[in-house]
Amino acid sequence: MCVIALSPIGNKLDKSTLTDMWNTNSDGAGISFIDETKTIRTYKTLDKDDFVKIALSVFDKYSVSSPILVHCRIATHGSVCLANTHPFNVDNHTVMAHNGIIDCVETPDTSDISDTRMFINTWLRYMRPTWLDDQYMLEYVGDIIGWSKLAFLTTNPNLRKQWYIVNEKEGSWLDGTWFSNTNHCGISYKYTNTSYFTGHGWYDNYDTIDDEDYYTYSTVEDGIEIGLHELSAYSGFEIQQLKRLSYHDIKDLFESEFGGVCEFTATQWNSYLVKHGSSA
Predict the structure, then answer these.
(1) The pTM is what?
(2) Three-state SS string across the chain, please?
(3) The pLDDT of residue 277 is above 60
(4) For a disulfide at 149, which of 20, 180, 226, 252, Cβ 3.0-4.6 Å?
């Protein structure tokens, strides 16, 4: 799973956060911002050190005057290359980053284009640019893309804001920055009692509470533990049996039982097994 970070004006990401984002999403990264000429600039790279260095420089210079959009990628459709690295141009005034898998478009088996680029080419470029100010259209696009999230940065003078998020509630605001997920630092959830895994994240057994007083975080390790217990209940496998599975097998099992995309990475699964093993 990829991760998007959208920092409104006056907010910055530090080196540790940028490094963690890359370490859990290492198939390329990009950063977009608005420069002194009111032009969107985008920088993309496949190199970790390059990404962190440039991103820190951009935040130091432009965070006081521009929202900043960052994306780190895990490839699901299309090869690992700069052409498939986010953010992408939607038009001459707008760029977009995506987290998730967009099922409403098909990418030919012979094509190297990602699902995000296909969605831009077949959907977004045919929509009127001001749709981002239409709440009905934001919800419509959100329904089309399912659990995916989209973040936009724009200089379009006909739009009211410089940034927009589709399916904002599927992500988390942390220290002034919106993240499409928190796999790089922990898995967030709102709770009234216990949580369970659905293939789209960890959620409540009861109604979700919107009050920020109830907002808390679980570590990735705790999230995996919760997910294993839920998967055991659904699948009939003992937890010890599940812990003997490779990442590929546990990922397939999560996705076949719950739908969606497995929320933890191979690195996180292997780290969990090192600590707990099959006898935990």
Answers:
(1) 0.67
(2) CCEEEEECCCCCCCHHHHHHHHHHCCCCEEEEEECCCCCEEEEEECCHHHHHHHHHHHHHHHCCCCCEEEEECCCCCCCCCHHHCCCEEEECCEEEEEECCCCCCCCCCCCCCCHHHHHHHHCHHHCCHHHHHCHHHHHHHHHHCCCCEEEEEECCCCCCCCEEEECHHHCEEECCEEECCCCCCCEEEECCCCEEECCCCEEECCCCCCCHHHEEEECHHHHHHHHHHHHHHHHCCCHHHHCCCCHHHHHHHHHHHHCCCCCCCHHHHHHHHHHHCCCC
(3) yes
(4) 180
